[in-house]
């Protein structure tokens, strides 16, 4: 049944998926546990007693990463100008460019975690791609090559995986609403078990060129034990791009955000 539903969504187009996600009642995940906290609920664990995140998970798509901020993110003047300028730009993912960390994590497509003792591999059905997060005590490279997903390193903080990400390029939006970033973007992700079948995810966005202070967004993943990832081919049948149907501007600007470009 899941495969039939996904086929319908693909035929309807990714914009419909994001539209449905935008209309869903959205609430943040429960607050991330305090530093060093060990969970008291029964959860799967690895042989080294760290939480075991292996499995396929369904997230909740957030078309606007700042959906929980009534006044929008705390923009600098440069950030406000960059966000307003999105109305004259094309959504980079329409050209099948990778969406970046925050956008792919918040997509409505399933995610699979493959965990070993010293690394977490995150497989994304959206764009059929992946991230590798080493959890072995290493530091960031001195000069990471700028990329869509940046350079991730992880560590354990109690029963929470903390992923530190730097080294981004400037070829993506933070979300379908068009929130901007610069070369100084620094993300800190936290993943923790809420209960045996739900994982909380919180991301802190820190970009001093675009925002006056760091801000956070969160969501919840639900375990789907009977699901498998299927192929996602962005280039196949991309009629918007190939037939020049693109329109400029974000598809789903936040109506509450005073810096949001006018809705089309």
Tell me briefly what this model is.
The protein has about 260 residues and is of the alpha+beta class.
Q: Can you characterise this structure?
A:
- It contains five helices and nine strands; from the N terminus they run H-H-E-H-H-E-E-E-E-E-E-E-E-H.
- The chain has a nine-stranded antiparallel sheet.
- It is an alpha+beta fold and 264 residues long.
- A hairpin with a 2-residue loop joins strand 5 (151-157) and strand 6.
- The longest helix is centred in the first third of the chain and has 11 residues, at 2-12.
- It has one domain: Calycin beta-barrel core domain (Lipocalin).
- 15% of the residues lie in helices and 24% in strands.
Q: Tags for this entry?
A:
nine-stranded antiparallel sheet, alpha+beta
Secondary structure topology:
Elements: H1 2-12, H2 14-23, E1 55-58, H3 77-85, H4 101-105, E2 111-115, E3 119-124, E4 129-134, E5 151-157, E6 160-166, E7 186-195, E8 198-206, E9 215-223, H5 239-242
Antiparallel strand pairs: 1-2, 1-9, 2-3, 3-4, 5-6, 6-7, 7-8, 8-9
């Amino acid at each position: 049944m899941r495969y039939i539903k996904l086929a319908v969504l693909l035929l309807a187009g990714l914009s419909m998926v994001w539209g449905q996600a935008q209309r869903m009642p959205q609430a943040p995940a429960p607050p991330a546990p305090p530093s060093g906290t060990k969970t008291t609920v029964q959860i799967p664990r690895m042989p080294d007693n760290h939480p075991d995140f292996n499995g396929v998970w369904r997230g909740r798509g957030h078309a606007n990463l700042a959906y929980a901020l009534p006044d929008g993110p705390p923009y600098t003047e440069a950030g406000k100008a960059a966000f307003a300028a999105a109305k004259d730009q094309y959504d980079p993912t329409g050209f099948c460019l990778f969406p970046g960390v925050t956008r792919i994590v918040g997509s409505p497509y399933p995610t699979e975690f493959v965990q070993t003792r010293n690394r977490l591999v995150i497989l994304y059905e959206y764009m059929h791609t992946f991230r590798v997060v080493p959890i072995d005590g290493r530091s960031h490279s001195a000069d990471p090559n700028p990329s869509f997903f940046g350079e991730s390193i992880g560590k354990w903080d109690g029963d929470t995986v903390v992923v530190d990400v730097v080294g981004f390029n400037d070829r993506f939006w933070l979300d379908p609403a068009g929130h901007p970033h610069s070369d100084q973007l620094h993300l800190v992700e936290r993943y923790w078990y809420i209960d045996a079948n739900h994982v909380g995810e919180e991301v802190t966005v820190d970009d001093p060129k675009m925002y006056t202070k760091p801000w956070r967004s969160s969501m919840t993943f639900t375990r789907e034990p009977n699901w498998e990832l299927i192929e996602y081919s962005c280039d196949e049948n991309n009629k918007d791009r190939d037939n020049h149907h693109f329109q400029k501007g974000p598809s789903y600007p936040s109506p509450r955000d005073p810096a949001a470009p006018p809705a089309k």
